[in-house]
Amino acid sequence: MICDPVSLEIIRGAARAAQAEMEALLERTAMSAFIREKKDFYTALFDAEGAMVVGSDLPIFGDIVGPVAAKFPLETMRPGDLYWYNDCYGSRGAVSHSNDQVFLAPAFVDGARVGFVMGWAHFSDIGGLRPGSISPDATDHFQEGIIIPPVRLMRAGETNEALLEVFWRNSRFPTQSQGDTRALMAAVRLGEKRLEEIARRFAPDVLADAFAQLLSRTETIVRQKLRATFPVGTTRFTDAIDSDGHGNGPFRLRLALTRTEDDRFILDTSETDDQAIGPVNLLMHPDVPGMALGLYFLQGEDGQVLNAGGPRALDEVILRQGSLLAPRAPAPLGLRGITMMRLLAALHGLVATARPGEAPAAHSAYVVVALRGMVAQKSFLMSDGVGVGYGARPFADGTDAVYFVAQENYPVEFMELSYPVRLLRYALHEDSGGAGRYRGGCGVVRDYEVLVDGAMLAVRLDTVVNPPWGVADGMGGGTGSAIVNPGTAGERRLASLSDGTVLNRGDVLRLATGGGGGWGHPHDRPAATVLADVQGGFVSAKAAARDYGVAITNNTLDAAATTALRATRPAAGAFHRRAYADVLD
Amino acid sequence: MPMSSTEPRPLLVAVDIGGTFTDVTLQDTATGQAWMAKTPSTPHDPSEAFLAGVLLALEGAGRGASGIGRVLHGTTVATNLILEGRTARTALVTTTGFRHVLEIGRADLPRRDNLWAWIKPKRPVPPEHVFEVAGRIAADGSELTPLDEAAIPAIAARIRAMGAEAVAICFLHAFANPGHEQRALALLRASLPDLAVTASTEVLPVVREYERSMAAVLNAAVMPAVSTYLGRLEARLAEAGIAAPLLLMKSNGGVAGSAAIRRAPAQTALSGPAAGVVGARAAAEAAGVQNLITVDIGGTSADICLIAEGRIGLTQSGRVGPWPLPLPMLDMVTIGAGGGSIARIGAGGALTVGPQSAGAAPGPACYGRGGTEPTVTDAHLYLGHLTPALLGGRMALDPALAEAALARVATPLGLSLEDAARGILAIADNNMVGAIRVVSVERGHDPRGFVLVPFGGAGPLHGAALARLLGIRSVMVPQAPGVLCAQGLAAADLRAEFSRSIARPLATATTEEIEQGFSRLEAEAAAWFADEAVAEADRGGARVALMRYAEQGFELPIPWAGLAGLGEAFAAAHRALYGFDLPGIAVEIVTLRLTATGALHGAPQPRPTGGDAEAARIGTQPMRLPGGIATVPVLDRARLGAGARFAGPAIVTQLDATTLVPPGWDAMIEPTGVMMLHARD
């Protein structure tokens, strides 16, 4: 062991500090609201061969360096190089929709490569069919914006400005694109400098050994936990997304995790449904399930980092070409988040099947509405990411109103200052959290009044037909909806994946998002907690009586009636989606 | 309260209340002479120790209460209430449709937390105590729907019925037009005269409703307790015949009168580390040091601040516990590394240090109060960086207990005790270095051009090691590094920020409108100066334009010296800070800010009175160095006079801290009393 435990911890801390610096720079200098307000960006450090060593707690990354190395052999790289791509098919899903730009720089000490640094951010518009580049209407990946194959944006410090010009010219919002690009480049350069400093301080071979240890540490923990969780044999779980926005669906994700006698772990996804016409295909890099399980298994493991050690804990991932998880080009990919969120729930479903009661219940898929049009002769793009409820856990309620890892909502005041809308309501979505000993998190309700004529709306909602499941006697979560002019004669319910709806001045869109499933029997939730849920607008009095057996009148607990209601305890089951079931299909 | 009087009142008294002791510094502003007093804190009623300490100091100085011209105090009452969730029962009145504004927040799952493990913290006001009222202001400040004043009495009745002690009001877009908030404030104050009522725009008139609502709620929720607390202090002072104004440290590093703090106690919530930084700056200024990085290391945390050209930056990205509190505060970073930080072995054999801390109880293992896990302090003791007695012999440290604790990590890792101890310090130092880098890069500075100023009880043990890691060659240890807060209080000026959003493209901005904007701010400042009774000659103000590229989310403060050259100054600042600028992209002036200061003319730094290093030598002790055990001199700081010089390795002890001078460093006492350490190589 070249790197002692002390240096190892110092290197881990220094890598985290480098990430914090890069993120601070990006947040402060980027221009699009997607990056600076919603914070849709991530950073990571890699070893000299390109394995991600210190990443973000976001389980959607595949092998980031590989696609670059395939085109620009590692030995040809030089100090001051900067590589870039967003090519999903060209990277086997290392990035999985084209809005995500990957900027990657190698770091050198005395001419020897010591590692790589990544800055990754969602760019709000890169061309394509509709403003925002992502649309439920897309049927072809080429409609989802400009594709940048792995390219060398900088060679030894010299920038290929023409390449940037082409990219910016393909955006409907070129100034934002320019600002975001410069910010990301500066952040990566900063990270490169920090990685060099770390390598110089400890010597490159010590750094390399530290990185190897961090990788093997994560792999060891994930492997141990896989062994502790799954029996020898095959564990199966099926979950489903509702539709592809083109009249097809549901699409089922069928996972089969096999632990062999000699403790090899094989994840087989090949029975998953065929790929979709619409843009819900997830080009899943084989590293992704290992990253996702890694995030799950690293809960409570302070001092560990999610990295490429997670994927190494899985010995094989089987994909079927032409399936929803391994689509053939040029199937559209823009809304792959929907399928990604189901995949994460399905992986928890495997755990819940093997170890009843251990895993969290399912969550809703995060929701985005996009409104585009013209205001004062300028085009605008309001792309609003909206939080949902997450699944209840064996130790706590599910989280209310969260989008996904580290991403923030747009404040109402920011929305109204920036876009021609007025928010009439932003509240928790009552009764959307699945009932249980621990309640599923609630989604939200957001009412938008449109202040301009002829604005085009896109909606992406999932888990409406197939709500998030409850677990271990807990009930499933509530569903979302998008309704125009609710409560009026002109009320209409929009398809949950849809684009092209034209809204005019005075129209109101009511967007409600889904919740998370519950964990444990609802009758085991203390009545006082249910009372607080009702008083706080999480649960209605009606649902309190029906699901929890708790009688509440005028925000006051009726103890006698509650005892009567709880005298008969409804039968429950391992999973619940609209009804209890031992196995979900 | 008037600050001038016919009688000469040259004394100032600064009181810092800690968990264990209350420290009082009495200073004569005319002569610079200072007296200190220490008395046990009285947590059941801190004002007891407050007064006892003041009287003790007066007695020690042989002076009378009537000579006191001002009383300075830093309080963590508000901070502790918030952190411990013990705030007053509070209601929030909000705009119809936004009852869950606190509950939803920013959907802000922290970036380094695990999505599946994270538990959303309980809000200080639950949704059942949030009341909606109709009325709507648009983003541009125009009124869309009048305030439903008729609904307020019923809301007041419900607030009364819930047993609230405090009420916060936050309406959408109040930052653009506070009319509705002010009206609701008047109505609620009238119907709930015995409750603390506050409006968001009184606390923080900035955009983003969650953050502003939270600021209003936290402000309201600490008002009753802070008001009671200040009332008690003032009663005690009056009792003792002290007729001087009570001034309190704010998060921005300035002080304000108690009336202002009663209105906006949230302004003190991030003030904990501020006084020390102000004290460090004052000591540095006296020593002619303009560029410094301060590291205040206590038992559980370290606060790091960068001061460039004598100026302390402000930020509005502060947090108290899990809550954002975007009031102006000193721009610093706090990390969980201190003398009490515990070393543990994590999964996979990783040695980690902190953020868990042994705190004051049980404290480090060597304190002998029941702690068994190894801490940073235990590592220092084992290596011989600390003498076995602290606080002038009042506290004995037990090396055997430190060894036993260190063995708990050393043995499983196959390390010697010495390597484990050194490792714990190296990890703690590196955590701090990471934070220092964040502070410096965010301000676009290379730390190598700075002097490191360590303070706090544990700071001077780490100063030289941190400097070495950062490439810094000079370390300045203040005269009383363990009680620098009191000196900071004594050195602080009255300070307040006034700002106005103008959101104007630089290309179309005119000198006239900007001058007008600043003039309005100066009028507000004039009213504040009058409130705080600041004499004309003591008034100061700095004008700053907060600027950004169009569509960015963060602004940079650019000193206002007219429109000419403003764009270039902004681009240069952007380049310096972030490494690039964006030629050809429009620049905006978002906000005009005026920082108003009322100079209080704190006392000059006390001069050191001791002699040379030989005279200060009070013993020797063994120290474990990488090359083996060496016998190193132990010097008494109080006996080191100006000009005293010595070389490391050495240990300098004083009542409030121990300084480690490692091999390769030379130390010298400056005429102003600070001890400078210089790297020899």
From TrEMBL, chain A:
For this protein, the record's Pfam families field holds: Hydantoinase_B
**Identification of the protein by name:** N-methylhydantoinase B
Q: Which residues form the Hydantoinase B/oxoprolinase domain?
A: 4-522
- Which GO terms of the cellular component aspect does the record hold? cytosol
The record's Gene Ontology biological-process terms are: glutathione metabolic process
* GO MF annotations, alphabetized: 5-oxoprolinase (ATP-hydrolyzing) activity
Tell me the classification of the organism that encodes this protein: Bacteria, Pseudomonadati, Pseudomonadota, Alphaproteobacteria, Acetobacterales
- Per the record, the domain of life is Bacteria
Q: What InterPro entries would the database entry show?
A: Hydantoinase_B, Oxoprolinase-like
Q: Which organism is it from?
A: Humitalea rosea
TrEMBL record, chain B:
Q: Name one GO biological process term.
A: glutathione metabolic process
Q: Which Pfam families match?
A: Hydant_A_N, Hydantoinase_A
One GO cellular component from the entry? cytosol
Any idea where the Hydantoinase/oxoprolinase N-terminal domain is? 13-189
InterPro entries for this protein = ATPase_NBD, Hydant_A_N, Hydantoinase_A, Oxoprolinase-like
Highest taxon in the source lineage = Bacteria
In this protein, which residues make up the domain named Hydantoinase A/oxoprolinase?
212-497
What molecular functions are annotated in GO for this chain?
5-oxoprolinase (ATP-hydrolyzing) activity
Q: What is this protein called?
A: N-methylhydantoinase A
